[in-house]
Task: inverse folding
């Protein structure tokens, strides 16, 4: 699903390239934010318990569009998925914890972009970020159970103990997704002109194999 969303961005890029009058920057921002938001909601139905692509999608939106746009995608996508969930809306404390965690995820993607653009962050760093963000998400959503169930700290400890296996699967899977999948997606998506306009350095980025080598030769005097 995440790869399919990337292909959708390619189609938008091709359409914008064919148009004589490309969309203005505000319209382009809305289009790209909508695509990432819809993609994050679509991948929310994870077939394997605690193995999800929502975090990676929202983080990727921050890397591609910037911190404030990643923050917005995280807030909107999480609200839409959790409030209009087929199993019923999340309780207000849980919804707040989820939205805050995903806003942090999108914002973190923007921060990483500012440090590494146009380079691709190393896989080990992306994996560590995925592990940290997932830990924060699991911690905050579990803390919300204290408010919802009114069990106090003993109930919080019991929730950690009973859900430890699920937390472990969630954190390991997101670590692998961030480390193995995101580097390739970031590298490919940065080659799209429609996304290069969001680059903080404002330059067109070519893949390494297409970048000409620079050679300096001494000028010969007549």
Result:
């Amino acid at each position: 699903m995440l790869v399919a969303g990337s292909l959708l961005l390619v189609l938008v890029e091709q359409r914008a390239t064919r148009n004589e009058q490309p969309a203005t920057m505000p319209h382009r921002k809305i289009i790209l934010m909508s695509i990432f938001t819809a993609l994050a909601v679509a991948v929310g139905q994870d077939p394997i318990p605690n193995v999800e692509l929502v975090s990676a999608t929202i983080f990727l939106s921050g890397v591609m569009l910037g911190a404030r746009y990643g923050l917005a995608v995280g807030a909107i996508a999480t609200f839409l998925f959790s409030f209009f969930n087929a199993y019923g809306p999340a309780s207000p404390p849980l919804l707040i914890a989820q939205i805050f965690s995903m806003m942090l995820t999108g914002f973190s993607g923007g921060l990483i972009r500012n440090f590494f653009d146009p380079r691709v962050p190393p896989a080990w760093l992306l994996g560590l970020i995925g592990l940290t963000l997932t830990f924060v998400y699991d911690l905050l959503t579990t803390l919300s159970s204290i408010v919802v169930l009114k069990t106090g700290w003993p109930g919080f400890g019991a929730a950690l103990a009973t859900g430890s296996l699920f937390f472990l699967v969630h954190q390991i899977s997101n670590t692998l997704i961030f480390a193995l999948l995101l580097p390739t997606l970031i590298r490919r998506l940065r080659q799209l002109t429609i996304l290069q306009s969001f680059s903080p350095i404002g330059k067109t980025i070519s893949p390494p194999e297409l970048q000409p080598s620079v050679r300096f030769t001494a000028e010969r005097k007549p």
Notes: Residues 1-8, 10-14, 16-22, 203-222 have pLDDT under 50 and may be disordered. The domain at 2-12+25-201 is CATH 1.10.1760.20 (Arp2/3 complex 21 kDa subunit ARPC3). The chain is about 70% helix and 0% strand. The chain has one domain: 2-12+25-201.
